[in-house]
Structures are given as structure tokens and as C-alpha cells.
Design a protein that fits this description.
The complex is a heterotrimer of chains A (251), B (257) and C (279). Chain A has 251 residues and is α/β, with parallel strands linked by helices. Chain A has helices at 59-67, 100-109, 115-128, 146-158, 176-193, 204-210, 228-233, 238-246; strands at residues 8-19, 33-44, 48-53, 74-79, 83-86, 164-168, 196-201, 213-218, 221-227. Chain A is 34% helix and 25% strand. Chain A is globular and about 55 Å long. Chain C has two domains: 1-90 and 177-256, P-loop containing nucleotide triphosphate hydrolases (Rossmann fold, 3-Layer(aba) Sandwich), CATH 3.40.50; 96-169, no CATH class. Classes of the chains: A alpha/beta (251), B mainly alpha (257), C alpha/beta (279).
Chain lengths: 251, 257, 279
């Protein structure tokens, strides 16, 4: 049973997304790649729904569908508020030619917030993600390290206080020591800002640390969905058990 | 990169364009007074060359500028929207590639009347195809980058995404290509002027100095050598600068984990 | 148990790129038949250290001092021919990216045989046989030999590379993050395979990784590196239960584990974000 407290933040029903290979021979339709093949789940407000699976299972496609980057072929996505996204690669998710303050403040500026106020809010958000050094604002992404860039990406995502964040492998490209501080930051922000997270990762340990409810994906489908404790203590699906068994243990 | 030093003398303030039609002034070999000799009308070849430099360079830059404007715009539209606009523009590009540009230019210029402005415009509007393809390729790549997705998720409009996000990142290879194109444009202008289809005498252009010189190659070698050398060195410098630009940009573009 | 012999000894190795020391007075040894894990985060110098063993350092790297003794000779002093002899033949290396280590236009079987011909280790008529044996060792079906790399999955590619590494019967195998790019379930199979091969052939393995749980699974002894220096060198158990350096302890502590009930993860003091773009 999913831990469903409070209201639904996002509900996804029978979501499907197929990719057709471009070019068909003589009009014969080739089989499409069923990236997402009928996925349904719900996430409660203020909670973290973890989506875990190996490469190619469709979890990144789900991230893009929910964030609105891709359009689904069928199914429903109902979201109760604003969404923003944090990507895996801190190097390509920031425009190398824009200053940090412009990157973070853009979503405010295009909605009519004045320059001065935007700058204030950017400063405030930067200290929220523990990048309080005032010099940061006028620098360019390449002047920062991976973990710092990820904080910038998080700042960009939360500046308008969205209700939900889609986090697509947000710490997978980071060193373990940095990973820990970013994960802590995400938890802190969730509490401070009341955020709902869709946390996507291939790393079962990280997903366990972050999530309240978990969905395990394989080949475009969810094979098991339950509360975090249930999935990890008493997995029902064979695939889930296999995955858990293959994780190398740490003493 | 030190080729910019070669540049300087060409941009140096030019001498007045004096003609010395006195008989003893005509066809003088290079001397201290006339560094590159005089031509068949007694004019100082050196000053004509310096003026000619202005002609060549301005044609080079303006023609390339025109082709950049067209190429970047069409390439951007093509690369960003894909689908039908892309198909349409690409057909257009392919047609442009089919034409032997030099002949096309010659015909158009002959038709419209040979003067420097026409030359600039015509070279510009016949050479945008390469840049267009380049920009389109850059747009295809950049359009899938995470920071573009992030901007869209934040609600940034298409226009702003194209101009604020993608375009600044796409310009690198364009500058390289443009620099190399300047050399090509100068060559075309020289060829046109040589054939009488470009800059008309008495305004000097390296090409038309060569024209004048071709009848006197046997004994007034300086009329051919100097403009020829000038064209060679200038085009070479642009090519080298273009290559260095390319080298400079490359490692920075290659972002490693 | 027979007394273990030192196969490789690195002493005072110091390498720099311009003003920056990337390997700083590194000392450690490799004993026959053991699996030594070289652990560290990105930028710690672990891969470069492995590269120096086979003289694969980039030309911009300056060797300030140090010796690497293998078979009684200092590897750093050897000339090109002698090094070529060691590479692949006595010390083989498996790199991180299975996708780029294979030639995309050559069939898998041919690539394995090519390594053998490069070292003339096996006579021409025996190569095909040997190649099939190797595929069997790495638990791949013989048909794989006729496939191109792009037709194979990541795990399969990594096994082909493993077969290539084993083809000349080296005594030492250096593995640089061999499973990082693989899915967790594949990773387990590849690691099990490596352990099995190591036992069967009594190979000495230098295993480079950033992942402590892999270390736990596969290593006998551990060296922890940070900023070009070795902070801890000890048996696996000792490093996990009682590491000398506080960095090691914090690094191990900050990893989330299964069944972890902690609400927040402990952090590493002065965690250096080595993800900085160079230049």
C-alpha cells in the first residue's frame, strides 16, 4: 500500500510513450520502442516518490513526460501545481554562456519581475542552496565544480517555489562525498519549502534514502510499487529481488 | 596569429590617390619614391594597392556579413523547428549548392551593372548555404541539451530560447567559417575585377590592377607581382586566422566529465 | 599459505602537470595473487598511478621522482621496446569505457586474436582455438566472435575486453573502474567473473574504483587515495573498521547503504569537488 497522506500532488495513469525509428522501408511499419508502456502511480504532497530501474527502463522518459518536455501518446498526467526539473549532468544543464544570476533569475524575468527584485530573490535562493558567497552571481558555470553546479541547477528549479520537482538522477554524476551533501540539501529543502519530489535513479541505495514510496521499473512498465519500507524489506516481484541481491554490500 | 601583423600595413591610412599622367611618370619600376612602381597611367601602384586593400577588405567583410545574416537565420529556423520548414529550406540550400557560384555571380553582376555594392550583395547572397548547414547542425545538437529543456520547462518562449540560449552557443563554428569565407570573398572580388565585372577603373582594386598589368607582364612585372602577392598574403592570413580560431574554440567546446 | 612475493613495488612516485602535483609521493606494493583495490574519488590520482605503471602517462606529465619495480627492473627506465613487451603480455589493463575500448569496425573474435598477434604469444594456428577458450573463460558463447561491438551489450563488451586482456596470459591485471558504466545486475556478474578468473589463474589484480562496496566485494587489501596521496593502506577489514585517516572514515560513512535508517548523511569535511572542468 502506498503511503497516501494528504492530497495527491501528481497522478499518472496508463501513461504511454512510444518512439518510432525514423524511416520505414516501403511503408512497412517497424516495431516502435515502447519507452513507457502503461505506467500509473501517484505521489502525495510533500512526499518523495522514488522511481528506480536500470538503464533503458523508461524512467528518464517519464521524467520528461511529467516535466512537459515530451508529450505522451496516451494516458493522463494530473499535476496540482507548478513543476520544475533538475537533470543528471551538471555540466550540460546550465547554459555555458549565461551568468549564474541570469540562469537562476530567468524564470522570474520572463514573467515580469523587475531586475532589482529578481537579483534579490536570486541571492536569497543561492543562500538557500548553500552557495551564499556573493561573488557567485556574476560567474559562469564553468567556474564552478560539479556539486556547485548542481546546487545552481537546484536553485534555478526552486526559485519560483514550485510545488513539485522532478529529479532525474540528480547525484549520479557526482563524487560520493558531494553526493551526500546534495542529498542532505534536497531533504532540507523538501522540509523548508514543502516540496514534492519525483526522484529518479538507478541507484537503489540512494532511492531508499530519499523516498517515501517507490516504483520499480523495467522495460517501460512498473513491476512493483509500494512504500519504501515494504519494497526494501519484503520485495514481492522477482525483478526487485534480483536487483536488491545484486547490490554489492558495504560490510 | 602573428599574421595580424601582416594585416596592419593594409589598413594603414592610405596615400591620396594621385595620378601622375606625365609621360616620364608612366610605367616606372619600383623605386624609393614609388614603392611598387607606377602603372601605365603613371599612377603610384603602391597607393593604388592600399586603396585596393580597402576595397577588397570591405567587400570581404560585408559580403560575409550578408551571408552570415541569411545563413544564420535560415539555419536557425531549420535547425530549431525541423519538420517542414527544415525540409523546405534544405531543398533551397541544395539548389544553391548546385549552382556554380562564380558564374552565377558573374551573370548577375553583368546584369545588374558592375559596381562595388552589387558585388558585395551578390557574393553575400550566393554564399550563405554553407553557413546555413553549419548553423542547422549546431542547432540540432544544442536543441537537445539539458539547459534548453530546462529553459522550456521554466516557460521560456521559443524566440527567447533561440536567441538567448541556443544562438550564442552556436556561433563558434560560424565565426571560424566566416573568417575563412572572407578569404574566399576577396578572391571572388579580385576575379570579378580582373574580368572587368567588379570594381571599375579608375577606382583601384587588386583585381583590376592585375588587369592593367596583364598586358605589360614582360617588362612591367611589378604591376602583376604586387597585387598578386597582396591577394595571396591576405587570403592566406584569413585562412590561418580561421584555423587558429577553430583550434582555440575546439578544446573549450569539448566539455569533459 | 606460501609467503607472498612482491610483484610490483612503487616507491616515492611523484608526477606533476606543470605546477600541479597529481601523484604525490606514492608508495605501495602489489603482492603475488592478491587483489589490491586503489580507491579514491575523481581527481585523486588513482587512474594516473595505474597509467604510470604501464608508461601511459600523457606527454605533458612530468615525472619528478620515483621508481616502479617490476621483475627486478624499473619500469620508468625501460625503453619503448621493453615496455611494449610488458604491456598486454605481462601486465594487462582494462579501461573504463567498454564502448570506446573496442574497434567498432572489427569483429570481436578478430580483436582478441589481434592482441595475440601483437605479442606473438600464441602461434598463428593456435590463435583461433585460444580465442574460443578465452570466450569460454569469460562465459560468452563462441558465436560472439563473429559479432561487431555495436551488436553487443555493455556487459558483453566488457567481457570481450577482459578476454583480450587475458589473451597473452599476463600475471598482473589492472582494471580501471571496469563496472562503472554497467547496470547493477550486470556489474555483479562481471565482478563474480573477475573473482573467479582471479582465483583460477592466481592472477594479481590492481582494481581501481571509487565505489567502496565493490571494494568490499572483491579486494584483499586497500589503498585509499586523495589528491595524489595515499592516505590509508591496509587489509580490507582494517580499512573498513578502523581506518587511519579521518577522510577515509568519513568517506565510508557518507555512503547510503541498504537498510540505512539515517535521516541525514554524514558529510566529508572539506569535501573537494573534483568535478571541476579543467582549463
Amino acid at each position: 500500500m502506498l503511503k497516501m497522506r494528504d492530497e495527491k500532488m501528481v497522478e499518472v495513469a496508463e501513461l504511454k510513450k512510444y518512439f518510432w525509428r525514423s524511416g520505414t522501408f516501403f511503408g512497412i511499419k517497424t516495431e516502435p520502442v515502447k519507452a513507457v508502456d502503461g505506467v500509473s502511480f501517484r505521489a502525495a504532497r510533500g512526499q518523495t516518490f522514488g522511481l528506480v530501474g536500470e538503464s533503458g527502463c523508461g524512467k528518464t522518459t517519464i521524467a520528461k513526460l511529467i516535466a512537459g518536455i515530451l508529450r505522451a501518446d496516451s494516458g493522463r498526467i494530473i499535476v496540482n501545481g507548478d513543476i520544475d526539473i533538475v537533470f543528471q549532468d551538471p555540466f550540460s544543464s546550465l547554459n555555458p554562456r549565461m551568468k549564474v544570476k541570469d540562469i537562476i533569475g530567468e524564470s522570474l524575468l520572463i514573467r515580469g519581475t523587475g531586475g532589482k527584485e529578481t537579483e534579490e530573490r536570486v541571492r536569497e535562493t543561492l543562500s538557500l542552496v548553500r552557495l551564499g558567497d556573493p561573488g557567485c552571481m556574476d560567474k559562469y558555470p564553468h567556474q564552478f565544480s560539479g556539486g556547485e553546479r548542481q546546487r545552481i541547477a537546484i536553485a534555478r528549479a526552486v526559485i519560483r517555489r514550485p510545488a513539485m520537482l522532478v529529479l532525474d538522477e540528480p547525484v549520479s554524476s557526482l563524487d560520493v562525498s558531494i553526493q551526500a551533501s546534495i542529498l542532505n540539501l534536497l531533504k532540507d529543502l523538501q522540509q523548508e519549502l514543502g516540496l514534492t519530489y519525483l526522484f529518479i535513479s538507478h541507484d537503489l541505495r540512494v532511492v531508499e534514502f530519499m523516498s517515501d514510496d517507490v516504483g520499480v521499473m523495467k522495460a517501460g512498465r512498473i513491476v512493483e510499487i509500494a512504500s519504501r519500507d515494504e519494497i526494501y524489506a519484503a520485495p514481492k516481484a522477482e525483478y526487485t529481488r534480483q536487483l536488491l541481491a545484486s547490490i554489492p554490500r558495504l560490510a | 596569429m602573428g599574421l595580424t601583423a601582416v594585416f596592419a600595413p593594409f589598413i594603414a591610412p592610405s596615400d591620396p590617390l594621385e595620378m601622375n599622367l606625365s609621360p616620364q611618370g608612366m610605367l616606372q619600376p619600383p623605386s624609393l619614391e614609388h614603392l611598387c612602381g607606377t602603372d601605365n597611367l603613371g599612377r603610384d601602384v603602391f597607393s593604388r594597392m592600399v586603396y585596393g586593400a580597402r576595397v577588397s577588405l570591405s567587400v570581404g567583410f560585408i559580403a560575409v556579413f550578408i551571408s552570415m545574416v541569411i545563413g544564420v537565420f535560415l539555419g536557425g529556423v531549420s535547425g530549431y523547428y525541423g519538420g517542414r520548414p527544415d525540409a523546405f529550406i534544405m531543398r533551397f540550400v541544395e539548389v544553391m549548392y548546385c549552382f556554380p557560384t562564380l558564374f552565377l555571380i558573374m551573370i548577375v553582376v553583368a546584369f545588374l551593372g558592375p559596381n562595388i555594392v552589387n558585388v558585395m550583395i551578390v557574393i553575400g547572397i550566393t554564399s550563405w548555404a554553407g553557413l546555413c548547414r553549419l548553423v542547422r547542425a549546431e542547432f540540432f545538437t544544442l536543441r537537445e541539451r539539458d539547459f534548453v529543456h530546462a529553459a522550456k520547462v521554466q516557460g521560456v518562449s521559443d524566440m527567447r530560447v533561440i536567441f538567448r540560449h541556443i544562438l550564442p552557443n552556436a556561433m563558434g563554428p560560424v565565426y571560424v567559417s566566416a573568417t575563412l569565407s572572407v578569404g574566399a570573398a576577396i578572391l571572388i572580388e579580385s576575379a570579378l575585377s580582373f574580368l572587368g565585372l567588379g570594381v571599375q577603373i579608375p577606382t583601384p582594386s587588386w583585381g583590376n590592377i592585375l588587369t592593367a598589368g596583364k598586358n605589360y607582364i614582360d617588362y612591367a612585372w611589378w604591376l602583376t607581382l604586387f597585387p598578386g602577392l597582396a591577394i595571396l598574403v591576405t587570403v592566406l592570413s584569413f585562412n590561418l586566422i580561421g584555423e587558429s580560431l577553430r583550434e582555440m574554440l575546439d578544446p573549450r567546446l569539448r566539455e569533459r566529465k | 599459505m606460501e609467503k607472498d612475493k612482491k610483484i610490483l613495488e612503487i616507491s616515492d612516485l611523484t608526477v606533476s602537470f606543470g605546477a600541479r602535483r597529481v601523484i604525490d609521493n606514492v608508495n605501495f606494493s602489489l603482492y603475488s595473487g592478491e587483489v589490491l583495490a586503489l580507491v579514491g574519488e575523481s581527481g585523486s590520482g588513482k587512474t594516473l598511478t595505474a597509467f604510470s605503471i604501464l608508461d601511459l602517462l600523457p606527454r605533458t606529465a612530468a615525472l619528478e621522482k620515483g621508481k616502479i619495480m617490476f621483475n627486478g627492473k624499473n619500469v620508468l627506465d625501460l625503453d619503448h621496446e621493453e615496455i611494449r613487451d610488458i604491456r598486454g603480455n605481462e601486465i594487462a589493463m582494462v579501461f573504463q569505457e567498454p564502448f570506446t575500448a573496442l574497434n567498432p569496425v572489427m569483429r570481436a573474435g578478430d580483436q582478441i586474436m589481434e592482441v595475440m598477434s601483437a605479442h606473438d604469444a600464441v602461434s598463428r594456428k593456435n590463435r583461433k582455438e585460444r580465442m574460443k577458450e578465452l570466450l569460454h573463460t569469460v562465459k560468452l558463447p563462441a558465436e560472439i566472435s563473429s559479432h561487431y561491438p555495436h551488436e553487443l551489450s555493455g556487459g558483453m563488451r566488457q567481457r570481450v575486453i577482459l578476454a583480450m586482456a587475458l589473451s597473452c596470459d599476463p600475471s598482473v591485471l589492472i582494471l580501471d573502474e571496469p563496472t562503472t558504466a554497467l547496470d547493477v545486475s550486470i556489474q555483479k556478474h562481471v565482478l563474480d567473473l573477475i573473482k573467479q578468473i582471479q582465483k583460477e589463474r592466481r592472477l594479481t589484480i590492481l582494481f581501481i574504483t571509487h565505489d567502496f562496496s565493490i571494494v568490499n566485494m572483491i579486494a584483499d587489501r586497500v589503498c585509499v587515495m586523495r589528491n595524489g596521496r595515499i592516505l590509508d593502506e591496509d587489509g580490507k577489514e582494517e580499512v573498513f573498521t578502523n581506518p587511519v585517516d579521518p577522510y577515509t572514515r568519513q568517506l565510508i560513512a557518507c555512503i547510503p547503504r541498504l537498510g540505512d535508517k539515517r535521516e541525514r548523511l554524514p558529510v566529508v569535511e572539506n569535501a573537494q569537488d573534483a568535478g571541476r572542468e579543467n582549463g
